[in-house]
DNA sequence: CGGCATATTGAAGTTTGTCAACTGCAGTGG
DNA sequence: CCACTGCAGTTGACAAACTTCAATATGCCG
């Protein structure tokens, strides 16, 4: 059975979060970050503001971990031992209702930190996390980082900035869900993906459309229809490539 | 013209946030908290975890301010000088779309802190805040609290806990909006308002139904219909009084 | 009781979700 | 090289849920 292709299998047997090397899976082998991974990590928002000593402490606490597409990182209700920072790939954070329907809460890409809010809260994860594609993550032990933050103001300040940012982003999400229709959400997303001050642009989606649909709180079909509704505003879609002829027209949607 | 009853007037002439005494308005007079207000403030989540010295510092930084129902506390885009903690009454945080439609992001009641995320972020408010009824608030100067947090780990820890809490609450909000229908949202709200482990309950809404509707992301009419849909699950509504005959039946909605 | 704001109800109308069929593409294996 | 397969995405038809508008009812406070 192909684990990466069978959601049901994933749903009952959690992936253990191993690091794979040359096609061979070595479960739960946590490694220090290699230099390429370190270079990515130190540029992420949560690390970039740290002073040299705080940065060293955090790098010492980080381990690297890989997941394959559709692997489950953790589930709602499990005891939270770690929080994560994405080095490459995308991770979905989502909830289930009692019928088993899923709703994405957040899509985390390179540089994004997630579950760090549990540093100062209850002992359990509050949502599910799944790799949307093959991902590399930096993993941090919650208890150790909490201890480090108590001693180093740089670290606690970085965590606060991260929390404050996520809070505002999530509040934006609530407001957008409640105020905007599907084409408006898509237009808004495209505009935030455009370089500032440009009159036209062409964008390559960094992930599948189904993932974008979830991020925007839409069914994949609704995203499709939103794109075709945006054609009259000069938006051309071919695969992951999106051509925007008139940025100002998009703003009027 | 009655300021408290004319939304348009409020929309163009911002209330200055004065403290009123015996019907006479004294604009912008910021006062130290009286002992009753202090007693409330020290029990709020953000203050309760502070040690004695941190608590004293924060109380010294706090000023009391009253607003009348429908007063605007601040608007999106304004420079953020203060964050607030609700001592009594309710405050709506909301956004406008370009058609002028409003969507509530959060309803803050006694003990709730808001806009504290700006301690570590950009200089502007990111949403509007309006008194939903007559309110008393503790106001904190952002720059001063930021300085205090740098020196006192208790304070920065309290802020982090507050941020983490709000983040999780807001993520819950996104998930609930995306997963639950109107009756389910109302049922969920009622269940969180019930004492734990009770089989039946009677609740008094702490605010107007229109405010509850906004909190749940619904039009007032949709809330009304949700309540009448819940009648068959043993929910009786008369004014602000709500009788729940069977808590378990509500959980099945 | 009057006056006003809040809440409820009914009747459209929108928007989105759901289900199903179909397309297009990429990879597989004969 | 080509049929087969599996998956992502699109499209259509329909249903469900919610909003909006309008009319009416209820409740509150002078």
Describe the 3D structure.
The structure is a homodimer of 253-residue chains. Chain A has 253 residues and is an alpha+beta fold. Chain A folds into 2 domains: 3-177, Jelly Rolls, CATH 2.60.120.10; 181-251, Orthogonal Bundle (Arc Repressor Mutant, subunit A). The first copy, chain A, is built from 10 helices and 13 strands. In chain A, the strands form 4 sheets. A 4-stranded antiparallel β-sheet of chain A has the order 3-10-5-8. A 4-stranded antiparallel β-sheet of chain A has the order 4-9-6-7. In chain A, strands 11-13-12 form a 3-stranded antiparallel β-sheet. The model of chain A is unreliable at 1-28 (pLDDT under 50).
List keywords for this structure.
four-stranded antiparallel β-sheet, Arc Repressor Mutant, subunit A, 253 residues, 2 domains, homodimer, Jelly Rolls, 23% strand, DNA-binding, alpha+beta, globular
Give a brief rundown of this model.
2 copies of one chain form a homodimer. The first copy, chain A, has helices at 7-12, 35-41, 45-48, 52-61, 142-151, 153-179, 182-193, 209-215, 220-230, 247-251, and strands spanning 19-21, 24-26, 63-67, 72-74, 82-88, 91-96, 102-108, 113-114, 128-131, 135-141, 201-204, 235-238, 241-244.
Which SSEs are present, and which pair or pack?
The structure is a homodimer of 253-residue chains.
Chain A lengths: L6 H6 L6 E3 L2 E3 L8 H7 L3 H4 L3 H10 L1 E5 L4 E3 L7 E7 L2 E6 L5 E7 L4 E2 L13 E4 L3 E7 H10 L1 H27 L2 H12 L7 E4 L4 H7 L4 H11 L4 E4 L2 E4 L2 H5 L2
Antiparallel strand pairs in A: 1-2, 3-10, 4-9, 5-8, 5-10, 6-7, 6-9, 11-13, 12-13
Helix pairs in contact in A: 5-6, 7-9, 8-9
The structure holds a DNA duplex (30 and 30 nucleotides).
């Amino acid at each position: 059975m192909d684990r990466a292709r069978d959601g049901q299998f994933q749903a009952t047997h959690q992936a253990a979060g191993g690091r794979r090397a040359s096609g061979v899976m070595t479960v739960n082998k946590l490694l220090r970050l290699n230099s390429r991974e370190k270079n990515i990590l130190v540029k992420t928002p949560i690390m970039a503001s740290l002073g040299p000593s705080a940065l060293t402490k955090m790098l010492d606490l980080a381990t690297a971990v890989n997941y394959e597409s559709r692997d489950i990182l953790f589930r709602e209700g499990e005891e939270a031992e770690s929080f994560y920072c994405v080095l490459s790939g995308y991770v979905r954070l989502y909830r289930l209702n009692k019928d088993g329907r899923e709703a994405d809460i957040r899509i985390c890409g390179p540089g994004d930190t997630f579950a760090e809010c549990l540093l100062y809260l209850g002992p359990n994860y509050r949502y599910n996390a799944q790799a949307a594609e093959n991902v590399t993550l930096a993993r941090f032990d919650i208890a150790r980082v909490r201890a480090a933050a108590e001693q180093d103001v740089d670290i606690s300040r970085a965590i606060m900035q991260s929390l404050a940012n996520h809070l505002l982003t999530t509040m934006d999400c609530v407001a957008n869900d409640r105020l905007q229709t599907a084409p408006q959400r898509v237009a808004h997303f495209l505009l935030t993906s455009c370089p500032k001050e440009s009159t036209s642009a062409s964008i390559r989606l960094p992930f599948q459309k189904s993932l974008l649909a979830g991020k925007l709180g839409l069914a994949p079909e609704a995203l499709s229809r939103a794109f075709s509704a945006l054609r009259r505003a000069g938006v051309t879609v071919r695969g992951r490539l999106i051509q925007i002829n008139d940025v100002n027209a998009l703003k009027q949607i």
